[in-house]
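tmp note - DVU3141 family protein
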Amino acid sequence: MSLIRTPLAGTLVALCLTLAGCANHHAATSSANTINSTPLNEFLNNAANHSATQLATSPWGPNVQITAGATYFAASGKTCRPLQITLPAGSQQEQIACQAKNGEWQLSRPFGSHKL
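out:
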């Protein structure tokens, strides 16, 4: 049995190694984004679209208001919600939270410029 030695074969090997590295990186960091706040998890599980809650503690600090957008199914197969976070000073951030297979919510990424 011989190995194929062409530029295309080398490129394919490099691509496979790169994708495997990305997959391992994602798996290693996904638990770091888990929302470790029972009130926030409960809110995300039960909140109607575009409803808000005030949280004494959160991943963004104390006394923030969270507004949850409409639930949707991402291409990854996860259930996700856009979040608008209003900090005590009045500034706002947008984030996406997605539910992992184990039911825990995780912060995915900043939402961008789309408004709820």
